[in-house]
Amino acid sequence: MGHREDLLEGAKRCLREKGYARTTTRDIVAVSNTNLASIGYHFGSKENLLNEALIDALGEWGKELEGALAAAMSQDGGALERFESIWSRLVELFANDRALCAANIEVFAQIEHVPTVRQVLADGLEQGREGLGRLFGTVSEDTDQETARAVGSFYQALVTGVMVQWLIDPGRAPSGHDLTAALRQIATGLMWNGGTREPEPEHV
């Protein structure tokens, strides 16, 4: 590999080992076996290098996520069994790349100051809205676009929320089994109430 590729790989390693804010130029140079001048020549600044490395790493993680979801959906069983399998695999992904998940959340707090990364993440969210519903098996080609987008946004909220809970307290974060039990209870509650709110009491 050339210096540019070496720097990107080194920056991705630093993101996983040290996080976004704590990574220094010397850290990247040390693990990539390059030099400080190479960062300026190829990327202009350490921030530009880290941003590109994070975008690259998230793209790789997204492919792993897509593969895990596709593998879970291919298993035999009913909808709830597949739902639990999907979430169990997602939690495994969080465990296998905890540091990258943490770096991702770290960037969220600085997103106003890194517009390039913000745009990439926004584009990724939009693509995810289109695909997550299909991957979870709750959206088909016949589903209208507005509904498919809403379903995808719902799954995105779950993925992000579970990831944050897992990062903060993995011992008590919800498992695939927990989320399936919750979904079953929510669905039962909605059916019990007929999907409508109870009438408000009249005021005298």
List the helices and strands and how they pair.
Elements: H1 3-18, H2 25-32, H3 36-43, H4 46-73, H5 79-96, H6 98-108, H7 115-135, H8 145-168, H9 176-192
Quick overview of this protein structure:
The protein has nine helices and no strands. With 204 residues, it is an all-alpha fold.
Provide the descriptors you would attach to this structure in a database record.
204 residues; 9 helices; mainly alpha; disordered C terminus; 74% helix
Largest sheet: none
C-alpha-based Rg, rounded? 21 Å
Strand content: under 5%
Order of helices and strands: HHHHHHHHH
- Supply the helix-strand structural class: mainly alpha
Shape: elongated
Mean pLDDT: 84
The percent range for helix content is over 70%
Total strands: the figure is 0
Distance between the termini: 79 Å
DSSP helical segment count: 9
Unreliably modeled segments: 199-204
